[in-house]
Specification:
single chain; globular; 582 residues; alpha+beta; five-stranded antiparallel β-sheet; 32 strands
């Protein structure tokens, strides 16, 4: 919903106060859904909209934060691997909790400002166990307004029960948005409450999972997997968006809410918009349990803002709700397959008037892109940063891609990464330079990556410079990635002069970091002795004896071989770790 409307299974209400809230909480299953509110229209004092959402299951946390200058769609923690995130398309995400509870997240653009519509579908394990802004899930109407302290206030006659809403504001020690290591370290793992279900794979390996629910297969969307490197390198900052700035009288330039439209006018505008939607009329005809909450939201938004253009957003929200109900209605799918196909293959935002819909996918007109054809395709994406300052560490990752943060990386954008690669050999004398073009890949609206299919074997350092273009004419600025191994190499940047040095007592052999005195993995008689040679193996006394022993041990007598080794071991002053197979 565009405006902050949180609703229980039986009672709807409005929450027009700023802050961070618990929408849903199942303490027994270690599941949370939190939201953050900001002003829907920055130049007004209201209404308030959801601008961020955080979903947690055990020690998994996924965040979409569009408040203020924040542009984050990513896992913040992923240790239990039970929270499944599917990107249906670039503005629509579906999150599945291990119990079967699901969360649909719709990103909506209102005059250049992103807001979020949330839809929570509870599971059987939530009955009598879940609470928060979305009510108490026990099927009893009278206790929906159950506060955090378990007191129940009968606010049946209120449209904005602020006392109830205030009670569910997030406390500092549970705030998932701040990325606080203290908060994250306190999160309990699902392994403490669930018994893993283990099966044997076709390859004979054991595979275990804590999931108690498997979502139905869908032909739309792809799973958004956790990028551990980004999680480890990201340092979240507390948002200082307009919801905090509005408290400062020196910079406050807000217009007080005035009901610029009458209720009658708002109802007329919204009803006409809904009735003009052929798809919505189909939904009304076949989906009997379709809620009218989106229509109510539409009327309220028009009444409070006077912006008639908001109707399309609410119609889209109603169609998404309709699609969800159809997906869960097996009887309707069987009796009305054509209707089911039509509803399940609606195009997002009806391609925004900049494309044609076919089978649920938009074919965009020239100059437009994205799943709903709402993005200007002419200019290249804006790059705001390359994680880890452009350093890619082979000691911790494969360095097969260069992740880029910015906006916007939308579906089917056909952008090209123009790569220039310079590689230096082990002696740091020979340089190899090549140019290549690769298709830019999108992960979210704010995260993409350029594939890096380069062989680093035999190379001391690999430097890749790249920029991006949609048309080969207009380019982004140039960025670079340095591939190295922190295990044994130290990175230096002196006024733009980048170079690597080998750490003391380490060896660098066959493009691999070797720790001091470490043996070769294929020959135990070879080891790293940086004092002797940093870039080649050094033979230990095991090899030296083997060579000399051949002079008199021509009969290859195993007993004589054993005796000689024992004598050498007793007389040797150094404590070597001998392996006699060499």
């Amino acid at each position: 919903m565009l405006k902050i409307i949180s609703f229980s299974p039986h009672r709807s209400y409005q929450c027009h106060i700023p802050g961070e809230f618990i929408n849903y909480r199942n303490q027994h299953q270690l599941q949370w859904i939190q939201s953050k509110h900001h002003l829907c229209i920055p130049s007004y004092d209201g209404p308030w909209c959801v601008c961020a959402v955080a979903a947690r299951a055990g020690r998994d946390v996924f965040v979409i934060d569009l408040c203020g200058e924040n542009k984050v769609i990513s896992y913040e923690l992923c240790e239990d691997n039970v929270l499944k995130v599917t990107k249906i398309y670039d503005k629509y995400y579906k999150i599945y909790f291990p119990t079967g509870t699901s969360l649909a997240i719709y990103i909506m653009d209102w005059n250049g400002h992103y807001n979020i519509d949330l839809e929570i579908l509870p599971s059987a394990m939530d009955v009598g166990n879940a609470d928060g802004l979305c009510g108490y899930f026990d099927g009893v109407r009278e206790n929906d307004f159950r506060r955090r302290n378990s007191t129940i206030t009968d606010n049946i006659g209120l449209t904005s029960p602020n006392g109830f809403s205030e009670s569910w504001k997030i406390m500092d020690n549970e705030n998932l948005f701040r990325g606080d290591s203290v908060v994250y370290s306190s999160l309990q793992s699902v392994s403490t409450i669930l018994v893993p279900h283990c099966t044997c794979t076709e390859s004979g390996k054991t595979q275990c999972s804590y999931n108690t629910f498997t979502p139905c297969n869908s032909n739309r969307g792809k799973q958004y997997k956790c990028n551990v490197d980004l999680v480890q390198n990201r340092r979240r900052k507390r948002d200082v968006s307009d919801m905090y700035r509005q408290m400062d009288p020196l910079i406050r330039k807000k217009r007080t809410i005035s009901y610029v439209r009458s209720t009658e006018y708002s109802e007329t505008v919204c009803l006409q918009a809904f009735e003009n939607s052929r798809e919505y009329n189909t939904c009304q005809q076949y989906v009997t349990d379709l809620s009218n909450v989106t229509l109510s939201n539409c009327i309220e938004d028009i009444r409070m803002t006077g912006d008639d253009n908001l109707t399309q957003i609410h119609v889209e929200a109603a169609l998404q709700q309709c699609s969800t109900f159809v997906l869960l209605n097996a009887t309707l799918q069987e009796s009305e397959p054509e209707v089911t196909y039509t509803i399940q293959n609606l195009c997002p935002s009806n391609c925004t008037g900049h494309g044609t819909c076919d089978g649920g996918n938009c074919t965009c007109d020239a100059g437009f892109g994205g799943s709903d054809c709402s993005f200007d395709f002419l200019g290249p994406p804006t790059i705001t940063s390359v994680p880890s300052a452009g350093l890619c560490d082979l000691s911790t990752t494969t360095c097969k891609e260069a992740t880029i943060m910015g906006k916007y990386f939308f579906e089917n954008m056909d952008s090209i990464c123009y790569l220039t690669v310079k590689q230096t050999d082990i002696n740091q004398t020979e340089e190899i330079e090549q140019k290549r073009q690769m298709n830019l890949q999108e992960r979210t609206l704010f995260e993409g990556f350029c594939p890096l299919p380069y062989d680093t074997s035999g190379m001391w350092m690999t430097e890749i410079r790249f920029n991006i273009s949609n048309d080969g004419v207009r380019f982004t600025d140039t960025y670079k990635v340095i591939i190295y191994q922190s295990h044994c190499q130290e990175y230096h940047n002196e006024s733009g002069n980048v170079y690597l040095t080998l750490k003391e007592n380490f060896c660098y052999i066959d493009s691999t970091c070797i720790s001091p005195m470490q043996n070769s993995s294929i020959n135990d008689c070879l080891y790293c002795n940086a004092t002797n040679d940093k870039f080649n193996w050094t033979e230990n006394e095991c090899n030296l004896w083997t060579n000399s022993n051949r002079k008199y041990d021509n009969n290859n007598d195993p007993q004589r071989h054993r005796i000689h080794i024992d004598e050498l071991h007793r007389t040797n002053r150094r404590d070597y770790n001998f392996y006699y197979d060499c």
